[in-house]
What does this fold into?
Amino acid sequence: MKIRTVILAAGEGKRMKSSLAKPLHCVCGRPILEWVVEAARAVDPRPVVVVGHGREQVMARIHGVDFAVQEEQKGTGHAVMMAREFIQDADIVVVMAGDAPLIPGEMIAGMVEESCARGEDAALLTARMEDPTGYGRILTDGEGRVQGIVEHRDATEEQRQVKLINTLSGCYRGDLLLRYLDQLTCDNAQGEYYLTDVVGLMVRDGYKVGIALCPNAAEAMGVNDRVQLAQAEAAMRDRLNRRWMLEGVTLVDPARTLISADAVIGQDTVIYPDNVIEGKTVIGSGCILYPGSRITDSRIGNGVTVQASVLDHAQVGEGTTVGPFAYLRPGTQVGSGCRIGDFVEVKNSVIGDGTKVSHLTYVGDADLGQNINVGCGVVFVNYDGTYKYRSVVEDGAFIGCNTNLVAPVHVGQGAYTAAGSTITQDVPPQSLAIARARQVNKEGWKGKYKPHAKK
It folds into this structure.
């Protein structure tokens, strides 16, 4: 049986009040539309996305789908018509709303499977809402089969008491959908072709249309404005956080922990409140993330401790401690058993196993070996105003406090630099480099010094 899925994402989304196309607003780090595409792949590995407003943005961001273009937005039925070339040989066509990111793929697959098992010609995904104001109502008979769909503004007082709402998502026999799409008219107040009219025509001609009930009404919500976007974010965050807790991750306060949908976290990791884990971050097992860090597209090994720091496209080896107030920038690779301390910034550098960079230091464009001690206030001076250069510090070196290493410079194995030195030449292995002015003491100077009188 061939199943094709059509996702309707051509609307303008005026209520978002944004220059960004509505389907690209993010929920837990992913665009709304990506969530819908992922759910659709439960039944169709390459869904069809109908685009219109902001289609250049959408087509540049969403991959692994077919696109159909709705040049003029003439209703939901018209949008499905635009995908005709992709669905004309499908046995089952699933239609999904492109702004409903919370509907899981297993619900879509279950809807199709159960509808086919019941011998239905179509099935509509619905939810039972206590306050269905604004939603179209699904009218059913005593056996639960659909008799029609009525919009809220057109419903009678009796029909408005119905709590089954139309989510727009549903599945249809492919041949029947195409037949009745051809029979749609735009003879209505909006002058549009409604997909809901297909259901009415099928019922009129005696075809069976069933329902698939979404057990959690919140999952059926669409996102039309920033308030609903925040509600979807909260619901998805709860879902993701629950998943990780069930996988053996401790979240001290889940409501104050943001974890991207694409992140991976190992067992026995403890995450305190106010951590933001973004992108495709991978965190090992047995880690501790104390409050207040932002970790983006980074890889963290087992047993790492991070406190109040920013890691951006960085790698950290096992058993290393980071922070507080450290900043690991893109291109940073920190080895195992290291210490990256408070107010340390590392950029585009490799730091070997066991090396300590404890505080108030900038490491930029450098390659550091193993078991090095970098003192307080050290600066890797990597930029001359035009070009950037790299420095190398070999295993076991000791970089004294307030040393400036002016790149390109090479410090040999086991070498020392004296505190306060500005190193501009290579330092041989096992050597001590002193590069500072000789101290001169002027004895009795204070008694001879006469300040200038104020004018």
Q: What stands out?
A: The domain at 3-220 is CATH 3.90.550.10 (Spore Coat Polysaccharide Biosynthesis Protein SpsA; Chain A).
